[in-house]
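Quick check before the chapter quiz. The format below is the same one you will see on the exam, so make sure you can read both the input and the output lines.
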Amino acid sequence: MKRITEKQSFLLVGEFMHYWSLTEAVVDELILVITGLNYMYFYAIVPEIPVAKKLDIAKTLLRQLEADNTNEFDEQLEALRNQIQYRNVVAHYPFFPTPDADTLTFARFASKGRYGSWNNPSIQVIRWSEAEFADRIKSVRGVFEKLYPLVLGLQERISRPESV
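Here is the expected output.
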């Protein structure tokens, strides 16, 4: 059994977040391209919007455009939506190589809601193998590689109105 080292765990988490951040930036750019907002307004507003809401906004805006390739955009935006749960684990859970297995462990103390109470906290543990990580990285990278050219193509087709 090949164990994941600490250095490998940093590389896996870093690669996932690298492609996630690139892809989220492309979604931001998609919203910017369609709305034509002034950069100052755009960057004051959009970073405050959770990614799931950005995907909803992007889909609504694309429908208003009645673009030829709306289905291609929808497919990629939904593929990204399906990865949000993994992004949340990688971004919010402390992680470490599992000492006695070939997995990376994400663990978080939870003290409210369904995971426990202040007096009785529980630990939510998630384990991913290197292969599972590779699949999740491949999925997010695939969305980036398909969505980015779509956004560039849309940008070329849209003549922006005066910035608001």
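If your answer matched, good. The two ends are 58 Å apart (CA to CA).
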